[in-house]
Design a protein that fits this description.
About 35% of the residues are buried. The protein is mainly alpha-helical. The protein is about 60% helix and about 0% strand. The chain contains 10 helices and no strands. Helix 1 packs antiparallel against helix 2 and helix 3 runs parallel beside helix 5.
């Protein structure tokens, strides 16, 4: 989902040279060239005096760089002022998802799902939000839909029965070097299907991504 296209309505017109730079930065972001896109977004913020389109790009780059709280500031300040509101809402919803604000993420994603033709990324994000809200049957349905629409980009999640997962943990412990074993005597290994929301939002003031695989 790219943040360019229809420019029929703008808060303030930008010259073509700056619009082209914004498009090129979006292309870089889509290719995974996050550092380059982020630097260009910062430069464009200066070059356009904080134009909403540059602010939207900057927010998207911040999100992809792992700074959802900073991204939220930019995305909220440009909401309703950009040429592709559906893509903007998707990034805003994705930011809410990263900040463990799952109810808000679900609400926005449902709005985007009705209007956007490229549904797979929206369905996958919805599945993630619903999973954290404890609505597992609905989440599985959206995971299936995303997979059917784009199996290469959105494979089905790998599932393990709890007994099988605990067996993997035990096997990993047994393969640790002998000199480390005494130090594990008082270390608790806690296995949960998903991290609790409080864990995601209250760690030294910095949010933790809901897709985290483990904490120490």
């Amino acid at each position: 989902m790219a943040g360019k296209k229809d420019r029929s309505e703008r808060v303030r017109p930008l010259p073509d040279r700056l619009l082209d730079r914004i498009d090129q930065a979006w292309d870089a972001l889509e290719k995974g060239e996050v550092e380059e896109a982020s630097q260009e977004a910062e430069d464009l913020m200066d070059a356009t005096a904080g134009h909403p389109e540059a602010r939207f790009l900057f927010g998207a780059a911040l999100l992809e760089s792992g700074y959802p709280q900073e991204a939220l500031d930019q995305l909220e300040s440009s909401q309703g002022k950009v040429d592709n509101p559906n893509v903007h809402l998707f990034y805003l919803a994705s930011t809410f998802l990263e900040l463990a604000r799952f109810e808000e993420a679900e609400s926005l994603l449902l709005r985007v799902l009705e209007a956007e033709e490229d549904k797979a990324p929206i369905q996958y994000a919805l599945a993630q939000a619903l999973e954290h809200l404890g609505r597992y049957a609905e989440a599985e349905e959206y995971y299936d839909q995303a997979f059917r629409n784009d199996p290469r980009s959105y494979p089905l999640p790998t599932r393990l029965q709890r007994e099988a997962f605990e067996s993997v943990v035990e096997e990993s412990q047994e393969t640790l070097p002998a000199e480390l074993t005494p130090h594990l005597a008082e270390v608790a290994v806690v296995v949960q299907d998903l991290p609790e929301r409080e864990v995601l939002t209250e760690r030294d003031g910095e949010p933790i991504t809901p897709s985290v695989l483990g904490l120490f």
